[in-house]
Amino acid sequence: MDIDFLSNHPDKINEVSEMIFKEFVVKTGSGLKYEDVVKHFSNTKDNALPITLVALENGVCLGTVSIFENDLKIRDMYKPWLASLYTKPEYRGRGVGQHLVTKTVDVVKELGFNELYLRTEDETEYYRNRGWTYLETVSDDKYEKIDVLKIKCI
């Protein structure tokens, strides 16, 4: 399995866009259009935010993760954020997500950040069991319970 920047694999932009649109846009009712998601992923970079990584095996995309400057408007003092971690169902249980997270931490460190944040509505224990520190629980106009966690990038 290889973890690489989506910007190095433009042929995977539509596939990543479709995964994220179905999992994070449609399910949350955010109102973004599919075309907006494609445009976003068409503009990710490898040395400045936003960054998107893909897990690849023999040319097949197994999953993806992004690094955003902010993923929770009510907590704009925290940056950057791990966002949109997704592994295709048929590849779950193989460590794809953990490989994506590990590479994300490495990239964030290379960019000069000491910490990385994430938000989750229902996977707090998954991250805590992998070294993330719980910071707080907040709510916004969509969710009553959002846990915010961080990890040191050292």
Automatic annotation (TrEMBL):
Keywords: Transferase. GO terms for cellular component: cytoplasm. The keyword Cell inner membrane does not apply. Residues 3-154 form the N-acetyltransferase domain. It comes from the Bacteria. InterPro entries: Acyl_CoA_acyltransferase, GNAT_dom, NAA80. GO terms for molecular function: acetyl-CoA binding; N-acetyltransferase activity. This is GNAT family N-acetyltransferase. It comes from Bacillus mesophilum.
